[in-house]
Design brief:
seven-stranded parallel β-sheet, alpha/beta, about 350 residues, single chain, six-stranded parallel β-sheet
Length: about 350
């Protein structure tokens, strides 16, 4: 089978695509894969390092602040369609699968025009611009949230979960003791994205001193961009600070509670392992989709939402104190998380690909 994967812009699109590629290689030793991304976003570095054949196509996202700049965006789009068609004709795929980001629009549309079978996957509860545009052209639409089925044509929309979740179950657990934490005390991880957050750094700097003498332990992952901002803060023995953790998913398996953003990949990860969460949705994302992502979990009792505007040293510490010491609540949150998790998402997607390719 020959498969083209297209996704770009953020890890939320790229890492689920990589998870599916891993499953495709596991199931079909002869599978041929071509990844089509942009020429200037993070996938251009990540994908070739994985040994996956890569083609970069210039593409720009819509400008919501200055609509006149979208004239250039449309010119770039039509050039991208022409280039994508050329690459697809050359590669001759059986199916083209898009995981979002604006690069997926010209690639999937080109496949449609060439009568190649197509699938898109939506990671968030609110569909992105590209997937909303492509919904009318594709053969199948796969979603991570049941709540987003209503936003797509029902006859071709299937709930599969996020393929990232299936990868996680096989990751080896890392003991918190490897970071110097005590085995018999609860651990809370605080992380606001791989790079960190300027607004949250200011708030967290004020919060750290309040963890002194607490009966739980705290690991703050600052993000590489903001680690130096904390250098003047004196930490108590139950608090540790790192810029990043190489195998965070392994460590999360020995964690009692996480304070985090609510991007699609994060939700796939914590629902897969059943990690209770206090979620601080980023208010800077399109359509406030992180809040909607988190709200679907909160409605099931799996997480607690603390809006960034309400986040301060007292609100976080009070919420942590109340939650981490309520063993029954943590247990219920864990069970609710596990119920939302889809542990065989990549396998489900693989089956849908086979059905489409075989005309079943």
């Amino acid at each position: 089978m020959k498969v083209v994967i297209t996704a770009g812009g953020t890890g939320g699109h790229i890492f689920p695509a990589l998870a599916l590629i891993s499953k495709l290689k596991e199931k079909d030793k002869n599978v041929e894969i071509l990844y089509i991304g942009t020429t200037d976003r993070m996938e251009k570095d990540i994908i070739p390092k994985e040994g996956i054949p890569y083609v970069g196509i210039e593409m720009k996202g819509l400008n919501r602040k200055n609509i006149f700049k979208n004239i250039d965006v449309m010119k770039t789009y039509f050039r991208a369609v022409k280039k994508a068609k050329s690459e697809l004709v050359k590669f001759k795929p059986d199916v083209v699968i898009g995981f979002g980001g604006y690069i997926s629009a010209p690639v999937i549309y080109s496949a449609f025009k060439l009568k190649i079978k197509t699938i898109i996957h939506e990671q968030n509860s609110i569909p992105g611009v590209s997937n909303k545009f492509l919904a009318r052209y594709v053969d199948k639409i796969l979603v991570s949230f049941k709540e987003s089925i209503k936003d797509f044509p029902h006859d071709k929309t299937i709930y599969t979960g996020n393929p990232r979740s299936e990868q996680i179950k096989d990751i080896e657990k890392i003991s918190k003791t490897t970071l110097g934490f005590k085995k018999d005390k609860a651990l809370v991880i605080i992380v606001m994205g791989s790079l960190g957050s300027l607004t949250m750094t200011k708030k967290l700097k004020e919060t750290l001193p309040l963890f002194k003498n607490k009966d739980y332990q705290v690991l703050l992952i600052t993000g590489k961009n903001y680690y130096d901002d904390y250098k003047d803060i004196k930490l108590s023995s139950n608090v540790k600070l790192v810029p990043f953790v190489d195998n965070l998913l392994g460590l999360m398996k020995d964690t009692d509670l996480i304070v985090t953003r609510s991007g699609a990949s994060t939700i796939a990860e914590i629902t897969s392992i059943g990690l209770p969460a206090i979620m601080v949705p980023s208010p800077y994302v399109t359509n406030n989709h992180q809040y909607v992502n988190a709200k679907s979990l909160e409605d099931d009792g799996a997480c607690i939402i603390l809006k960034e505007e309400d986040f301060n040293k007292d609100s976080l510490v009070n919420l942590l104190d109340k939650t981490i010491n309520d063993k029954e609540k943590l247990k219920n949150m864990k069970n609710a998380m596990l119920k939302r998790g889809v542990k065989n998402s990549s396998s489900r997607i693989y089956e849908e690909i086979l059905k489409l390719v075989r005309d079943e």
